[in-house]
Design brief:
- With 195 residues, the protein is an all-beta fold.
- Helix content is 0%, strand content 50%.
- The protein has no helices and 12 strands.
- The strands form 3 sheets. Strands 1, 2, 3 and 4 form a 4-stranded antiparallel beta sheet that branches. A 4-stranded antiparallel beta sheet has the order 8-5-12-11, with no helix packed on it.
- Strand 2 and strand 3 form a beta hairpin.
Length: 195
Amino acid sequence: KAVGINAEYGGILFVRTLEFAPLSSTTPLQVDIEINGTMGNSNPTAQRKEVRFSDQDEIRVEVAPVPAQETIMRVSVHSFNDIEHSTDIGSAVDPFVEVRANHVLCGVTKPKSDQTTALVEETFHVKTERNKQSIILRFHLKDKDYASEDDLLGYGYFDLEEEDITSNQTVYLKWKGKEIGNIVISVDYQNLVVV
């Protein structure tokens, strides 16, 4: 066992050397101490003291518990590109993306006014108890209609079980079997500490 000793003896004391022996209630610990920078027997002001320990003395060390963690899936929509489908002839499209995980709506990007190619850079967080590989991400590209119901421009999906690389992946969108453009997405995972 070891202890730190702080003491004051006519000034500041500094512990210089410690001599340890098997400790018991009758075994002293010899400590040479230095007073104001002068050491041991070479100085008459140095003191040799005995510190006795009991068999019941303990030094307790608290060990912090390992915190619980949860894994959150992050789905980022980086852009949509080369959108060719328009629901209203002669009118501009204001595209936005709905993100779904196994048909559950997880988030919606902001509409981009009158653009067929645009940066999006929006991220959505998904917490699930399912195996990550069992999740299929579905993306619905829609045209924002402020006067009536939003129109579907196209859709695509990203199957996490089939994809090994999930960063900056292109998802091709289709409408009635025809490709109408694409979106670029990333999927990654973040561990969060639960307090």
